[in-house]
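Holo prediction — guanosine-5'-diphosphate.
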Amino acid sequence: MSRTTRIERYRNIGIMAHIDAGKTTLTERILYFTGRIHAMGEVHTGSTEMDWMVQEKLRGITITSAATTATWKPMRGPFAGLSHRINILDTPGHVDFTIEVERSLRVLDGAVAVFDASQGVEPQSETVWHQADRHGVPRIAFLNKMDKVGADFAMCLHSIRQRLDANPVPVQLPIGAGPEFRGLIDLLRMRAFFFDEETGESSEPREIPEPLRAEAETLRLRLIEACAEVESTLLQKYVEGRLEDITEEELELALRTGTLQRQLVPVLCGAAFKNKGVRTLLDGIINYLPAPSDVTRASRDEEPLCALVFKLMHDKAVGSIVFLRVYSGTLRTGMTVLNTRQQRRERVGRLMFMHANKREEVDEVHAGDICAALNLRGVRTGDTLCALEAPVVLETLHFPEPVIQLAVEARSRTDQQKMEEGLTRLAAEDPSLRVEVDPETGQQLLSGMGELHLEIVVDRLRTEYGVEASVGQPKVAWRETLRQRVRQEYSHIRQTGGPGQYAQVVMEVGPAPRGSGLVFVDETQGGVIPKEFIPAIE
Ligand code: GDP
């Protein structure tokens, strides 16, 4: 595959995980290895490159879907030696921010699902996995924290198969686990690589250690079988017993095809924190995940411009930043485009790629690109921008109903003005936030996806807009509607915790778990009241 087009060398990916699986650490290591940042910050000390906002630093939770651009040349596989652009859309792991995941999934082409190797599949990874299924996003899995006591490769594979109903296909086997995690066996090449304990660098390829040979051979056979189901030439060789004729390249390409068709999920592993397995994961991102041109909503340069606004952020220095995914055509600075949903024209100001440590200003961006635009004033999340002569509306983003409501009252008239201005801006950035005035009390009512979500809104009003306000108790929004929905739509509720308590639940429609969260088990009213629950339903 020597000649590839520009778009074929793009990977627009998300990294998705349950909170604490190591998504932030992994993202940061990826940015480090792709050469964009040179000092690795530690998570939870507030110096992580992807976490932009103060709240994230304080809470150690990644909230925004910041898009970051990096470059990588894979060492092995069909694209070896070719420079690729990876746009990473950061997706939050907290249940309150599932909406952010939803909007990232709308614009990315592939994803890395990160699991804590000692935990296997956790509730939020399940929710996000099913969201990704709905959006048809091809995935690879990364079993992180292989260095942690209790890390269990086989348990993780089993839990991915059972709980996610997926077809995990290991392409690596860890050498040891927990404190004994010392290297990786590459099951395509049947070679062992050992880590340097200090740097996490891999050794030159070596013979597979004898005690692991049988297991590696079994897993390789499984890998071949999974690939044979995808590629008929491999199937023929497999059926005829010509396993030694099967080449590394054939397996790589079959794995790619199987991933793109969502028939299988290549599984890699490592310990991001110790830099172990990050480089092979980067190779895996390029080798297995789709380019924009591989997915049905194909990107083309030669067609008229069409782009989707998927995120708005406010930056003190430059004002409003609009994140865009270009699907076709070229967007240039100074160009006038049509915002079809708002029925207005917009003049495009500055365009830039956001790297981890710098912003790169450019004159134009093309199909497949994810970029940031400044000074687009009337734009809201979910809007389509297109060429004046070819108006289209892209399928917009889907936002569920808010579940929690909070009353906020400004301390003074000045605070009231600042609050109105702040809320207008925050609601434009975040379509899952609803703002209305209580007709009886005149208080502002904020409705959102959970208590943490609204807490952060109130925090931002205070820190970014200087609003002093008193805040009421959070209440369940749309209580009746939700209660009915739970009764009607969830045929089965598995719950822990008794009446009068908050309980963690997994709710199911038929056999597949479709979401999870907190409910209040209310005996007197004979049912459950969702508290912080994000249903994974259309
Ligand atoms: P996120 O919530 O998914 O973004 O997870 P973080 O990246 O914030 O990581 C959660 C915790 O796990 C932090 O304390 C990390 O230092 C730790 N962690 C991340 N990667 C690893 C790893 O590979 N091994 C071990 N032992 N800990 C890790």
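READOUT: The pocket of guanosine-5'-diphosphate is lined by residues 17, 19-25, 43, 60, 62, 93, 144-145, 147-148, 271-273 (CB under 6 Å).
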